[in-house]
């Protein structure tokens, strides 16, 4: 009997696995035509300066609206795009669209674009140059958000690329700090303009986790010394905001300020 239920479970698992693979393949097929069918959209999350409460920038966040499936989160489709080789195409679309949108803003504040580790190579430089030339956005108004995983592949090459991007005048932002290795040694050696502390860290610090608070505080102290901005992500409540200020973060982002908005709403928000 036990044996039988074990076998049933194995069959069930196999079925589910099969469905997952099918589902994944279907998603991949749909994603291949998403750009030409104009199914990708950008939403923008405001970045707020904690001292003045002014909006000092926006982060571009990609969404996929598919006629059969509805809205699909980047958490679902970015990994698929990375696996099936579509992330460069999508990443270029995001970069081009975000830069073009930013030229329409009345205040010349930066737009931040998330960059997949798979886009992080020599070809990125050429792409950046052509997008800036095409859209005529000033390089100081573009920021690239990368995660610590870019350092994993080839550290020397990674630093060289970071230097080239910095030389172009484009800002580098370290995203999701606290979720990876949080290698502090990388910070001093890379020209980061700001660090974004991941919302999971903020969440546990607000929940009373002393370790998380200490790490945020330590990061803030070091960032101050290096003159790097510190952005607290995922600020949802007054309590989150107070803690971010208490710990010395200089900027914040999150639903407390606004849900990610479309390009038209951004233009109105900063008029
Ligand atoms: P991320 O870059 O760390 O972006 C922050 C995510 O947290 C966004 O989710 C944002 O909507 C969400 N968020 C912001 N404030 C709050 C808050 O107060 N509460 C909660 N619960 N969530 C908040 P989103 O848009 O689903 O993006 C998730 C991740 O997908 C991003 O994390 C980024 O890693 C990736 N992603 C988004 N757009 C792109 C893109 O254009 N290219 C690449 N390669 N990745 C992207
Ligand atoms: Mg980001
Ligand atoms: Mg983040
Ligand atoms: Mg994140």
TrEMBL record:
<feature type="domain" description="EAL">
    <location>
        <begin position="24"/>
        <end position="271"/>
    </location>
</feature>
<protein>
    <submittedName>
        <fullName>Putative signal transduction protein</fullName>
    </submittedName>
</protein>
